[in-house]
Amino acid sequence: MKKWLSIVALTVMSLVLAACVSDDAGANSEDGGSTEEITIGYFPNINHVAGMVAETKDLYAETLPDGTKVNYQYFPDGSSFMTAIETGDIQGGLVGPGPAMNHFTSGAEVNVVAAGSTGGTVIMAREGSDIKSPEDLAGKTFVSPRVGCTHDVQFETMMKEEFGLTSDRIDGEMKHVTGKPATYASLFETKNVDVATVPEPWASSIEEQGSGKVLVDTQDVAFGETLPAAVFVTSQKLVDENPDMVESIVEAHKKATDFINENPEEAKQIAINKIKDITDQELSKEVIDRAWERIDFTYEVKEENLQKFADASYDLEFLKEKPDLTGLVDTSFLD
User: Fold this and answer.
1) Beta bridge partners of 112
2) Residue 26's pLDDT is what?
3) Strand, helix or coil at 66?
4) What is d(CA 166, CA 171) in angstroms, rounded to the nearest whole number?
5) Which residues of the chain have pLDDT under 50?
6) Listed residue (231, 219, 221, 194) closest to 102, CA to CA
7) What confidence score (pLDDT) does residue 30 get?
8) Residues 268/292, Cβ–Cβ less than 8 Å
9) Residues near 303 by beta carbon (within 8 Å), at least 6 away in sequence
10) Rounded distance, CA 33 to CA 88, Å?
11) Under a CB-based contact definition with an 8 Å cutoff, are residues 333 and 114 in contact?
12) 273/156 Cα distance (integer angstroms)
């Protein structure tokens, strides 16, 4: 009887161990291939074209172990993206630097391992609003994707430093509301907002539709040409426990960025197709061409540029404590 029980116990233990092995990252299938599964996230914005190219061209299959299943998840805002990184629902992807820094300073163990792009933020005024200069924005309503997001901080920094105007969030003269960038044209048409801080390609789309006009172009917005408009983020846990995976993910991202710069016309068509798939809105080639001129696609990232932006977030009271971004950026995977 004891011998029979021992056999049963050993059998159960073997099954448990087998289940543990099959669930672990990096487990191998019988034919030697990987049974890993990862999920990459990004937004349907032009700043995130590297994500669209990597998905369309299946570039992660070229760098990750054979058999790795790659899924994709699309996000409407940075807060939901960063939550997914922290919970492990996604293993990496592109997000604005604002949410990445905000979550890091709040205690999230995350790493910026590359940039995605720079530029692409445009300040638009509603057609017919009689707004001719940012100085006219006292008492006006502006929209950004989310409180404290990258585009919000860029706009509010510019307004405070150059025109002495702040939002009602800190008892200022401008009213702030939030909304998805794809809806900004309709918000202009219904006159619900006067000004929008807009990521591409939605700024160029608004221009084409005629519901808004450029008030401040990319190069004149705060941090417009130095700040990464998108950064590639993963968790510190993944960096510590599976650096090979992080290296493979970053390598695929680098390949996607190089493809964009070497094949801009094909990359533009990929962006048109993916944005339509995700948002059900088809952008014209003219819109994409215009948006492309405002963006530089690069994976190089400098910590000092992010620190300056974080300091601006603190000055605007988006952050409660003066930020120290030491440890956020890890460029070792770019070598």
Assistant:
1) 233, 329
2) 41
3) coil
4) 8
5) 1-34
6) 231
7) 40
8) yes
9) 325, 328, 329
10) 23
11) yes
12) 33
> Which pairing describes strands 37-42 and 92-95: parallel, antiparallel, or unpaired?
parallel
* DSSP code of residue 317: T
DSSP secondary structure string for all residues of 210-232 = TSEEEEE-GGGSTTTTTSEEEEE
H helices of 293-330, in order, are 303-315
Tokens, residue 168: 């009602």
Tell me if residue 146 falls in helix, strand or coil. coil
Residue 70 is classified by DSSP as E
Q: What pLDDT is recorded for position 112?
A: 97
First to last CA, the chain: 61
The tokens for 45 are 């914005």
The bridge status of strand 37-42 relative to strand 69-74 is parallel
Residue 16 tokens, joined: 């448990």
54, 235, 237, 278 alpha-carbon torsion, rounded to 10°:
-50
What is the distance between the alpha carbons of residues 108 and 277, in angstroms, rounded to a whole number? 32
| Phi and psi angles of residue 179, each rounded to the nearest 5 degrees, phi first | -175, 160
User: Can you tell me whether residue 34 is helix, strand or coil?
Assistant: strand
Are 281 and 121 a contacting pair, CB within 8 Å?
no
> Given this model, what pLDDT does residue 13 score?
35
Domain ranges of the chain: 37-119+226-334, 121-220
Q: Which of 334, 133, 335 is nearest to 228 (CA)?
A: 334
CA distance 108 to 236: 9
175 DSSP 8-state letter: E
Distance from C-alpha of 140 to C-alpha of 176, rounded to nearest angstrom: 9
**Length of the chain, please?**
335
Task: Check: CB of residue 108 under 8 Å from CB of residue 82.
Answer: yes
Find the helix or strand (DSSP H, E) in which 202 lies.
helix 202-209
Q: What is the pLDDT of residue 195?
A: 98
Cα angle, residue 225 at apex, residues 212 and 40 outer, rounded to 5°: 85
Give the CATH fold of the 121-220 domain.
D-Maltodextrin-Binding Protein; domain 2 (3.40.190)
Which residue in this structure is represented by tokens 């349907």? 44
Output the pLDDT for position 277: 95
* CATH architecture for the domain at 37-119+226-334: 3-Layer(aba) Sandwich (3.40)
